[in-house]
User: Fold these one by one.
Assistant:
Number 1:
Amino acid sequence: MSTYDLLGIGIGPFNLSLAALLDKTKSAKFLFLDDKPEFTWHKELMFKDATMQTSFLKDLVTPVDPTSPYTFLNYLVEKGQFYHFLNTGRKSINRVEFEDYCKWVSKQLGASLKFGCRVQKVVPTSEGYTVYHSQGSHQAKALCVASGPVPNIPECAKPHLGANVFHAKSAQAAKMNLEGKRLVVVGGGQTGVELFRNALKGQWGRPQSVRLLTGRENLRPLDEGPFTNELFTPEFVSEFYQLPQSSKDEFSERLLLASDGNTPEYLQDFYNDLYLERFYFQQMPEAGIYPMRWMTNLVSMESGAYQLKVDNRLQQKEESFSADIVVLATGFRSQIPQFLQDIEPEISKDFMGRPVIGSDYRLQMNSGLSPIYMMNFSRHGHGVADPQTSLMSWRSAVIANKVLGNESYQTSSTESKFVHYHNPIQEPSL
């Protein structure tokens, strides 16, 4: 059995980016595995009006290798869409466009990606790891895990999960029937707002009512200011990584809307929809947005419906909402995958039990095990950009250089030019 220099687990945009960079060098033997039959990306949430929150230039490879054959611009040229795309005047693209671009790249990479392989177990060996999966096994000197986060489910909802209570990132979301039903969406981030808006448009049938509950003060816009976008640079990630963990945690909380807000243009369009429906067309189902609400309990009724117990933190009182279908747009959380259970005792963790990830995205372990690189497991270590696509190509380049053993890609971080979180000037003491 031959040994791969790197075996990737999970084929989403993050590992696809790494595969594209490694393929360009032609100097490493690599393979990526995924249990899906083909490349898909958030297919449950692929609404026609869903857009990316980053520039199309922040694709799989362009920021570190603009001459790559796997750029979004080359995709447009190959598809015969370049000039038509320019005529749209857009800086960002729809999610359906981004997914199609990723599918195009995955087809170019061919045999380097193996779909329909469910990884079951990873066992350390003297030369690296043996990865057991549904179609056999492979040997690798190093791994890169990008298996994705898991849905964050409120405790009170867990006993009720099923056909009528489910997370937004589930199969039920794509096939729900809302005709004549009462829908409650829990969560006021981008996903929750997209679900709310598309339900009002009748995408899943005409509902009786649609309500959105959010713990936030309102439907908050994403902070897209130029100085906020300095947080999504290699320079900031390098500065952030060196901070004490307590400072990182506090800073990340303050930066919530830099990564988890709603696209301002989307909110504006949605408000315009509501305005026209309310004052002119008057064809919309009963609808309402309820800020500062926290779901504290979920109770199933004899009728088959549900009652949500909600804490109104503004008025400091309990409220109840009735629903036939409850969709949990409650985000995601990182979790060490089950297939790493044999290695988990060796993983170094911080005071909150989170895995310690090195500045080069290598999982820190107590023993001298071979490298395991982790993507989207280090928001607590690398900052708000970690789960986003903004810096995925730079992170992939950092890992690719480690795998290749040379600086094939420029990744060194220079000092921030405008915003300094440490003092770059050593002034003499008075």
Number 2:
Amino acid sequence: METLDALGEGPHTLADVEAALPNIPIDDLIKRIILLAAVRVVRPAIAPEQRSVAAPRCAALNAYILSLSGGSGAVLASPVLGAGVEVSPLERALLATFTAGRRSVEECAEEIVRVCPGELRGRSAQDVAALLHADQLPFFRAMGLAGN
């Protein structure tokens, strides 16, 4: 889709997208972006100045939420989106280990076995942790939910 190619990686203003796609009328462009947002392909983001203020507050809140016991999912605060992001129990285990400074796939697998073994559904914790690291961690980093 031409709109997706123009967006590329990272946050962009509507003006940036409009400039990258001059042949698409603005009304049509807005409809496309709304559709992409509805299916969570793109998300709105707040200004960088606001992110720097929100980041430490979101990190503190998220650390507290992730420290709570239980193997259920959670809603974490994204300083990039300025909104909550729902995470599954497996994603929560990944982020809990990552936030605690335990960054390896093995440590994530141990956390999964400890807090939400029922989510494995016959899969190995090691395989699930590796998939989470490969597939989900880049998105969580982009949303400001996991540091580098």
